[in-house]
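From: lab user (bench 3)
To: helpdesk
Subject: output format question, protein + coenzyme A

Hello, I'm new to running complex predictions and I'm not sure whether the block I got back is the full result or only part of it. Here's what I submitted:
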Amino acid sequence: MGDVPSSHTRIIGWGSALPDKVITNADLERTLDTTDEWILSRTGIRERRIGGTTTSLGIAAGRAAMERAGVTGDAIDLVLLCTSTPDAALPASANVIQHELGVRGGAVDLNAACSGFVYGLVATDGFLRAGLRRILLIGSETMSRLVDWDDRGTAILFGDGAAAVVAERSEGPGGLLGFDLGSDGSMSHLLTAEVGGTIRMEGQEVFRQAVRVMVESAQRALHHAGLGIDDIALFVPHQANARILTSACTRLGISEDRTMNNLANVGNTSAASIPLALSMAAEAGRLAPGDRVLVTGFGAGMSWASAVIEWAT
Ligand code: COA
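Helpdesk reply: Thanks, we reran it on our side. This is the complete output you should expect:
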């Protein structure tokens, strides 16, 4: 699975949106039996943003990506929203975003938890190959609504946010060079949230499995792309825990200076985490045309997904 010999997906714009309200570790010290030192040393997180709705954050991120791409809604054929925190069971939150942004085409939500954006990237490539011209691919989450704020094992980890890319069908350079998608539902009990409930997690076991699945998945995607880790200009992993990232980087053989890490300021934003990190890397000038970028997501399910893309803008 996953060989993509001639892809036509070109990312032509990106953008992000974060709520204004900042919750620092010091804020959590006041309500939980925890310390800034514990949270920072165990997770790498200093603060997270809280607020808004999945649709409002998705609209703001989508608008920013469309502006950067220089396109308006009538040039977009599909809004693909990756989220595990839709604002309603019905309609899909993507429909609300589609209407607000004046998009002419279709709209659909995709839920693969923290792996969602990478699944969305692969789905985007498929939709473009099927004939669509441009897709607004968004990761947007309001994890604060799923968090039990009395549970120090999970409340410290998650944050809200959104980021988006505009992907265009192109005969030029760029594209999806290889990917890997996976799931093992026998581990579904490790990280759950019932409908109307809050997150329950076996943190240590999630940690252990996360390192394993992200390394194996990243290696399979590289193999399908016909590339090695030394060909990767930037590794953009799902931002869950700085120690998970360090372990994965060591096992993959990639240095942390070629790895995006924005955990300190945003925490774990689930399906928004990879596009947020990608947008911040692009903003910071860390991506150049021709760069090969490895993205790897993992999370509840357990699910995982990796892709190698060639940056083109
Ligand atoms: N502050 C202080 N102490 C805490 C704490 C907190 N916020 N959370 C847990 N502890 C305590 C535990 O109660 C335990 O105490 P005990 O030894 O007296 O029983 C001790 O710290 C160790 O707990 P443990 O669960 O082993 O800690 P850990 O080093 O595994 O760190 C996580 C906990 C949640 C940070 C870590 O397991 C993790 O990040 N896992 C992955 C989670 C994740 O990424 N999920 C999303 C995947 S998409």
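A quick orientation on your result: The chain is about 35% helix and 25% strand. Let us know if anything else is unclear.
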